[in-house]
């Protein structure tokens, strides 16, 4: 690390974080950015301004010694009414940042608020970096916007290439984006709360409350219930499992626009809704086999949460699974979009309790290397390097 970077540690860094999702909203992006913000605050050298949309009419901004919120209006996506984005806020942010200038700005999400924040930062000469969290081109194809996905990809590439660097969670994704023309990519991995997600959270009481008896196979899935999550494949795999293990039960944790349809089509399956904290950890650990058929992840936090909970995971070989699952040892991955292989792998593990148990132990061991504290320190290092680079360019002789 450079001398300039080290010197900056003695000064408080004013970081503006722009995100269109934040807890209590439940999704991987909100979970990730909350861990990063809280971790940076614990370092004691950051003042964070969180820019986000209002989540309700009564939503009020939080103000603390080293943290403040700036709330903007929200808009609803026309093809996904359950998801809200921030409305464009170029002039408001420009005025605010002109009066109280951040040292650096992080654009977490690429919606209208994120784009206008990028433009406001550039107009004021404030350094800005970005995160790549969501495969919007995949979403556009799932929501019958096939002809628009090239425009979406062009928009995303323009936004991210307008920043100093873009943070991505895996080398695989970085290589994919580089092939699409993205520049200045940095790897920032994900962490796991291995104390919360733990095999010891397994609860026979919870299983019994769901009508699942000792020794009965509990197949689980944690997901937002939306079309892009490819959940019909999970049900197809479960129906094949039933042919071999007739008393198996399928427990689905989560909510979303597709829940009503799925619940109507599969009334014998257990839909327990959104779970958080200890309740979520217990639902993970109380299962025996985790199915995750999504094809639209940039990472897939639920995969490492399931692994930390001691569950063998059946999923596609990309994103978090590609990085952390050694197929046949601590879970099973199959070629992306190979639905037959996904179903076969699910049935195979469902019928082999000893193999499931052995894989679950190894899956838990794999996640022991993951730590949010290490991820936060890496983000701090990246931020320091960007500030040092900007300072060097500003002070270098013409």
UniProtKB/TrEMBL annotation:
PANTHER family reported for this sequence: SULFOQUINOVOSYL TRANSFERASE SQD2
Record keywords, A-Z: Hydrolase
Pfam families given in the database record: Glyco_trans_1_4, Glyco_transf_4
Stretches assigned to the Glycosyltransferase subfamily 4-like N-terminal domain: 26-193
Lineage: Bacteria, Pseudomonadati, Pseudomonadota, Gammaproteobacteria, Thiotrichales
Organism of derivation: Leucothrix pacifica
GO molecular function: glycosyltransferase activity; hydrolase activity
The protein's name in its UniProt record: Glycoside hydrolase
